[in-house]
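Q: For a teaching session next week I want to show students how multiple molecules come together into a single three-dimensional assembly. I've collected the sequence lines for a complex. Could you give me the predicted structure tokens for the whole thing so I can convert them for display?
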Amino acid sequence: MSLLNVEPNFSDPDSFYAALTDLHRDRDAEASERINVRLILLLANQIGDQETLLEAMRIATEEE
Amino acid sequence: MGFASPKTYTNPVYSYRHSPDQDTATPTHHSVIIVGAGPAGLSAALELALQGIATVVLDDNNTVSVGSRAICFSKRTLEICDRYGCATPMVEKGITWNLGKVFNGDGLIYEFNLLPEEHHKMPAFINLQQYYFEEYMVNRCQQFDNIDLRWLHKVSKVVTDDQGAQVEVETQDGVYCMTCDYLLVADGANSPIRTQLGLESKGQVFEDRFLIADVVMEAQLPTQRRFWFNPPFHSGQSTLLHRQADNVWRIDFQLGWDADPEVENTPEKILPRIQAMLGKDVEFELEWSSVYTFRCRMMDCFTHHRAFFIGDAAHQVSPFGARGANGGIQGVENLSWKLAKVLKQEAPGKLLETYNVERQHGAKENILNSSRATDFMTPKNKISKTFRNETLKLAARYPFARSLVNSGRLSMPCIYENSPLNTEDVDEFAAKMRPGSAATDAAIESTSGEQWLLECLGNRFVCMIGANVDEQQSSQLQQAIASLQDTRLGVDLLLVDAPVNIARCLGDKDKIIKDSLGLIRKRYQLMPGSVYLFRPDQHVCARWRTLRVGQVVAALQRALGFELENGA
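A: Of course. Below is the structure for the complete assembly, covering every listed component.
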């Protein structure tokens, strides 16, 4: 059984998405990339569990 | 530009009529003049007519909308139109739909069902060409003696101060002037009156262009809203397909910012696009088309002395989410009862300021939602586009990503949260409904012919009481009802499941209904003894677990704006 929750879990999905794209709105590609990296690290720490993180990595690298 | 005359619809022609106001030595005075006979202006006239307020409606044209424009009308709009007495032809002519499908490329990523709750009089949405919507409203207006609809009377100048307004009107018989206590400005998104008064509607233009085409075809496609991101027939852009009445289908093609609107809106460009989408064997005829750039903007304040801006003149949104006409009509509903109360001297003038307070909140919500949808469709930069495209791909397999896919969040009535007219809860209610919410409909039984809760609420203050109390509480409730009636506040009672002894003491306009399906109990958490106070626009303004006259009086005074006068 998967540990990663792939069911909807955002308390306010539209606000989250707007905040996410706003982060990048007036930034160049390099700044965006750094922000994304930092975000991933912060959120990964929140999850913490190695198996869950590996599951997320697996989905992120899935072939289309 | 575009194809000016639809083939399935002939615009009615309303003739110019000379008014006696044009022959008077001094300007005639009216209490309310409305400028613009579109959805907002017409609904203001109907709402005020029902409140007993006469209006003059001035329009520079002699027909309804040319070409379709707005097509999605929400349940709340239909409920309001039902109160005006013109929802029946709308629902009959319109297409009721529930199912929406979202595709990425040629693959379905998810579908949604509006799954309307059962036992509501009106459907969740209908699709209907704007010209029909307006025509049915005009037909209804013509049944009222107190609506003076003047076609081809073009307002050329407005002057307003804190006492009233004066309008100068151009006609084929020359120019005339009128004065009024209140001027409702519903002259559209590019409001000439707004400009003339030096006022602005501020916001953002989306750097994108959309081709909107209405086509007629016999093809028996399913009645669904279908939205494609990056479809094979229109690579890299989005497309929307929606069914309207008369076998007319609305197609929106996203074109990108670099598209040339003049070139795109030619049959040579449009027809192959549509053919590619529908398939090469499908026969269709182009009904109407136009190329748009969308914008979201609103005025900082919808009121200017005695001029009140309503509809697109006050606030404009991009179309994804059906929030333009629907939001406009909810705004009109908000203003009209307040205006009627002030004109009848049953409320202080300050009440009118809350039109701006409550509808700024509503307009911001609509703009926020439609901006977000437009941003999702037109990502602002490369990384946003990557986020968007990967979200779409994940959505095909992982449900969480579907909650982020945004092809328009459909219009829901705004909740007037934190409105100064609300009385906040002091008792516990678990229902989703709360002070500020629009009333939710429910099937009911009554002896006076109503079958729906909203038909019993009407356009006045109503106190709904769960009257099925036990014997012990019965005399207490009876007394409370009697003393509420003694106050002569003009609040009508709506007793739910009342036993005979309580029912006996009611007045002419009070009503008794049976919650035979238990829907009011469920949707409002109306228990024996519970009380809901509704405003004339059917929004909840207060509620309690027991009827205490002092609380009802205070809440009513508050909802009428008397506290604004004393406090602020």
